[in-house]
């Protein structure tokens, strides 16, 4: 028994160690495989730090630079970041903060030099208190916090170090000079490493992130609509779970993207990558697209919410609208995919191409709705739907513009001017015939969720228009390639015109 | 003309300067007034930095500590943060990183000591490369990045500094000792300042942030419903703009709160504030509440979306549901406000108290819906609504639990088993009577948006249940005070029970 125990113990220990090591290796492998640039970046940092340490380790180099070499090491470790933009941003903050602090410290030193030692100590103490308090307060300003927080911290640190040291060291100037050279060498290595050797660009990351967000939304919508209409035909329960997870994961990435987008755009603004082309990198336009996509994403959340509503629409009613709804959703998906494709390849998308099949899908849905007028439609349906869509689009735009620019005080006026006559009469008219419609009312109760579903879907189309608009703007700002007519593409130029006409005709009605 | 110009120039310059100064002062005043703790924190930093500088400036102190005093200054500037939790977190990261790096560096030094100078240089170079690469890679692990990013950076920095210096300096041990003392003094000042002199607590911030988010959502809902039902009665256009802005601002703060919540909770986990009471600060529970509130917030976004739908419901139809909807919304608002109040005062809320008037409001809405059966209701309405609500609540919970724990594979099965008979007949039955219902169908078309609005409102009630649940859990975890019966409070204990009965009865039906 004892021998067995002794035998067993090492083997279980070995097994456990193996298990832990195995899972650790798995994790390391996963982190590396998810983004191989991480491995390259780690090697770059290792190489840079070693290179800069040679200043200290190699005798001839050390004779040249001396103790100050430590500042080069510090600069490389602190400043070298994953992307070029982040490195430049941090480097600039550090450099500018240090320079400003040094200048100010020398100015104070110059003023205090004339006086006695006690006065100098008091003067230095007071200036440290003053600068310490004011710079800390400065860091609470939103703009400073967002862009220059690190720079202000470095400023305060350097100012204190120089002011305090200068009290004890006589030749501060020489010290400062030596350190500045070293910081310069460190910065040089950082710039070389981040810009020229396997560079990672924040702009590129932002670009790819935007593309994958659009694709994610497209997948979400498709999965939503498929789940809604096909859930009763499904046998396997697991499929639903996977699909639900997909929907959730895909739109969640969009909803939570705000801070990532803004950081990437901020870093991208430091990257000199495209400046030799016609433009600066349009980081802010990507941020705008991000916020339109979030706006769109909230619509997807609502659509997904209606999957869980408990008043189930009978299958027969669903079947009536299944094909047009799936068609519309697949057109929205296709449009999003095309938009993603056009951004990925940096070429303009054809707006006519995008809206034409969408309009067709809306028409189909309209026809389906008309075929069941008791469920949804008003009397003058033939003219209503395009108008309704034009209005939906324009209101969604107003709504968006209102919130993102807080101007636009006139656009809402038109809404309130709607004619109000004849409705009270209709209300009275309906009440007596209550019992007569007792059976038919069954259908309306169960049509309620599908009404919500359809209106959310149409709302998504209206929001899609905003997305298209911002992506077109991106194409303009970022000088995308011209749209090329593919072989599999049918172009209908008149279509766009007709939407404009609808908008105009509506305006004249108002 | 010339004299006039000369006269005018200084005056405009003065005016401009005055204007710039004025706006600057205004900004400074605003930043300080928004949160007066900022001013206190700035003064605290100024004071600490000055105090620590005295080590350098005062002769007797300097004799004791020498050049190393600079490390105390550095520690104070870098570590002292706005809240106690952030300071402790950063301080721990810095301290632990430094200690670990020093130990490792001395180990390597111990190994390399035996050999010749050239071998030592190669050994140091290789170890720097190895540690540089591996720590940088380590920073890409999500858990490390979230909690220990700064510590790993400090580790790398310190390791390099010590390894490199030890090559040139003989008595590294003495150097390290001196610096450690200074870092200790710096840390001591930071701890004193952040924990004992006007401390700011991340936990407190998170707590207040959560309360204000709940209140913001309450205001949003109220504003939404008021805007929806009263917009045609309003005269002044500006009112709408303000109200729309309010809705937007209030729920926007909730939707974008994820990263703030997580940072605050992370810092709060470092605060020793409540540990002497029965519990650790339940930061993670606040994060959970934050995510439930965001889930609730998406519902408010959808509700607000229906304000802009272009198919306007006639005033007569709206009037039918105005009172019950406003009643329900005001009950939801009141519940949220009570929840906010209970969290603010750290006392349990009475769930019976919360659900009782809500149930009443739902009943009222139900009655209103029943009074217009042609618009919304199925035949067996009397039994349907409570069941529907119970199901809504349970599905919303399922949905939530599914996404936040990714378990729960069985709950959806019940939904698919719904009976499907008799519906195809109804579909056929309706078609021939198309022309007959031409006028009445007008009403259904215009009831579509109000159907969506009502169902979204009811969905919100279901989501409110999740919020209540998480807040009750918070009450348990954080040892809130017991709920006290106020004078203005009517308690109905049976109410809660009836909801449970509904849930059970529904389960037995399935």
TrEMBL record, chains A, B:
The keyword Ion transport applies. One of its GO terms (biological process) is monoatomic ion transmembrane transport. The chain crosses the membrane at residues 39-57, 69-88, 118-138, 150-169, 181-198. GO terms for cellular component: plant-type vacuole membrane. InterPro entries: ALMT. It holds the Pfam family ALMT. It is found in: Membrane. It is a multi-pass membrane protein. Keywords: Ion channel, Ion transport, Membrane, Transmembrane, Transmembrane helix, Transport. The keyword Transmembrane helix applies. Belongs to the aromatic acid exporter (TC 2.A.85) family. This is Aluminum-activated malate transporter. It comes from Lactuca sativa.
